[in-house]
Amino acid sequence: MRPAVRPALRRSAASAELVGATPALRRLYAVRFVFAAVWAVLLLVSGSDLTAGARLLLFLYPAFDVAAAVVDARSARAARSARAAGPVAGLYANMAVSALAAVGVAVAGASGVADVLRVWGAWAVLSGLVQLLVGVARRPMGGQWAMIVSGGISVLAGASFVRSAAQDDPSLTALAGYAALGGIFFLVSAIRLSRPAPRG
């Protein structure tokens, strides 16, 4: 086999693996959009008080993020692509960060809204960075610009949550907007994944 042919075959095989992973990722993004939208509505309905229902919702969001990252990592491994190594490592990091956030939010819920916002803000910053890096690694799949932008916004939002915790009357309502916006970005990515990635 001529040397010039081998790189072309490798690129073709990698493209086929990425295409094979796309339907699972598209479904996962759609599910994440629905979950985020429902979660945001329920948090708004529960109000700014740390009721038992609100505390359960606050725990469920990062816990769901862990579950989603597990499903995502399995799909990436199933693709058997060398390009999946970066995303999978990032997804494992996200699992750890989100698991700690779920525990941290549950503990902070007993202290008050300010502590919840501090934990949530730190999680938003770290998970946003991971999301951004995973999105960059997955650019060949297409539809990842929304994940990259969403990760950047999450970092900024996390910093704002930490700052708002120092206010006299901190509120949880901003978290609903954070979740809703993140869900919209997942929906955009799910739609964009239906289209072929641009060449080059």
Rg: 18 Å
First CA to last CA: what distance?
25 Å
Largest sheet: none
Helix content: over 70%
Would you tell me the overall average pLDDT?
Answer: 84
**Residue share in β-strands:** under 5%
Number of helices: 6
Q: How many β-strand runs? A: 0
The topology string of helices and strands comes to HHHHHH
Q: Which class of secondary structure composition applies to the elements?
A: mainly alpha
- Could you list the spans in which at least 5 consecutive residues all have pLDDT below 50? 4-20
Q: Specify the overall morphology.
A: globular
Architecture blueprint of SSEs:
Elements: H1 5-46, H2 52-79, H3 85-108, H4 113-137, H5 145-164, H6 173-192
Can you characterise this structure?
This protein has 200 residues and is mainly alpha-helical. The protein is built from six helices and no strands. Helix 1 (5-46) runs antiparallel to helix 2 (52-79), helix 1 packs antiparallel against helix 6 (173-192) and helix 2 (52-79) runs antiparallel to helix 3 (85-108). The protein is globular and about 45 Å long. Residues 4-20 have low confidence and may be disordered.
